[in-house]
Amino acid sequence: MEKWLFTPFTYLAGWKALTIGFIFFIITSVVGYFSQIHFDGPISLHYGLDIPIYFFLLESIIAWLSLAIVFYLFGLLLSKSTIRFIDIAGTIALARTPVVLTSLGILPWFKLLNTASLLFMPFNFLYTLPLIWILILYYNAYRISCNLKGIRLIISFIAGICIAEIISKIAVVQLYKLFL
After folding, report:
1. Which helix (DSSP H) or strand (DSSP E) does residue 47 occupy?
2. What is the mean pLDDT of residues 130-135?
3. What single string gives the DSSP state of each residue in 50-81?
4. Predicted confidence (pLDDT) per residue in 27-53, tens digit
5. Residues with Cβ < 8 Å from 84, sequence gap 6 or more?
6. For residue 100, which of 152, 68, 137 has the smallest C-alpha distance?
7. Phi then psi for 61, rounded to 5 degrees?
C-alpha cells in the first residue's frame, strides 16, 4: 500500500500516468472553477479571479508543464541515464493528483474566511497534508524518472520546484494579460 501512496511510478509511468493525471486536472479545474481556487503553480494555490473554466484547466497544465520541463532539463544535465520526457511528464502529472484533495479540503475554509485570513491556511491539515504528499510524490517522480541520487537529486529538486513555480507564475500572468 505504501508503494502506491508514495511511489506509484514503479507501476504507472508514461502515457498511463499522464492520462490519469489529466483526468485529475479536469476534476481539480472544475472544483477550482466553482470555488475560485487557482492552482497556478506546482505547489501553490490562490483564491481569486472569477474567470472562465478553461483558464483553471490551463493553469493546471501550465503548472504541470513548467515542472515537467524543468525536471527534464535537469535530468538531461545531471543524470547518466537516458531520460524520456514522457516518463517525467507522466509521473509529474500523476504526482499532482492529490491537488484534488487539497481543493476539497480547503473548499469550506475559503467560503468562511476572507482573503486576508488565508495567511493561516498552512495550519489547516487538510491543506498541509496533501501538499506534503504532493512534494513527496514530485520528489519520487523526479528521482525515479531521472535516476538521480544524493546531493544532485536534492539540490536540483529544490531548485526545480522554485524555478518551475516562477515560470508558471510568469506564464499564468501572461495568459491573463492575453485573454482578460
Report:
1. strand 46-47
2. 86
3. ---HHHHHHHHHHHHHHHHHHHHHHHHHH-SS
4. 888 888 887 788 889 988 777 777 898
5. 14, 145
6. 137
7. -65, -40
